[in-house]
Sequence to fold (381 residues):
Amino acid sequence: MSGRRAGKGQVPFLDLAPMTREVKGAVEEGWARVLATGRFIGGEEVARFEAAWAGYCQVPHALGVANGTDALQLALTGLGIGPGDEVIVPANTFVATAEAVLLAGAVPRFADVSPQTLLLTPECLEVALTPRTAAVIVVHLYGQMPDMGALCAAAERAGIALIEDAAQAHGATWQGRRAGSSGVAGCFSFYPGKNLGAFGDAGAVVTTDAGLADRIRVLRDHGRAAGSHYRHEFAGTNSRLDALQAVVLSAKLARLEAWNAARRSVAARYHAALADSPARPMAPVPGTWGVHHLAVVRVPAREQVAADLAAMGVQTQVHYPIPCHRQVPYLRFADGPLPVAERCADEVLSLPMFPHMTDDQVEQVCAAVAKAVAGKEHQVA
Ligand SMILES: *Cc1c(COP(=O)(O)O)cnc(C)c1O
Fold:
């Protein structure tokens, strides 16, 4: 996140302050309404955001929850997936994708990813299938969707549910359809650094399935039966969206398209400037519209390149240096090598990316990357 401050001449990895400034007035007005009503959990502001988010995602139902990890866990639990079930997750993702599977009581099974996009493919999914597979979580990593038609068809052939982890892809589309609307459930995080970020933790599940929406509504509120304050039908959890965050999210949603467009033009300039350089961006997926949550390139000698960029005032991060199946809690679920995920963990480097980057900042990053990778060669696999 944007904790580190960049000095003059420095390009920060992420700067949330300009986005915060843009919504400050709307947020203060909304917060005044919440303070006047005293309705801090649920209520009108939450219902308003849920309706707006469902509409934006082109689905009938959106359920606000406490964070993105809960969104994934509640989607799994709401689908009846738990002990005895396996859920396929790509090895190249944020650890929360796999963690949610464990929290639901199921077992994660790791799949490799495409060398072009670092996203799940139908072929990688099929290799990871077993008789116990109940679902696959497709992750729209870095803001980019894979070919959802092919993945939905593969899931259908296998007779498993397809859940979308859209925590990095607010507003992305495949064939004009929004991230989160193709699978049985789409799960979002509104962590502050995401494309749509709250002023704290928040998340949502979107779905076209009214029954699933009803079950998640019950599960997120202590299993409380619909229409009853005192009757609890399931052992649920506490994972509710609060009104103060809903106000922030509504205010920011009004700007999401413009902010995503700004990210897109930064990404386009990176692509143009780095064409034919050893810093290779992810290949675009035909028919998709990415929202560039992260600007990831694959570089040779990553640690040296990152150090050189830092020396030239350009902050970078790595998403992710350790693939999920190599993280300690997940070693026991790893069976067999996942060569693409393992190799890319050593090569990926995330360049600065946020909507309010100035032309000069983009220029500085392009020049610094060109200099840092000059003369370096990718090893042949
Ligand atoms: C951020 C993120 C999550 C988890 O969201 P939290 O709100 O931090 O729980 C899950 N999956 C991916 C791909 C993410 O980037």
Notes: The mean pLDDT is 96. The pocket of pyridoxal-5'-phosphate is lined by residues 67-69, 93-94, 96-97, 139, 165, 167-168, 189, 191, 201, 203 (CB under 6 Å).
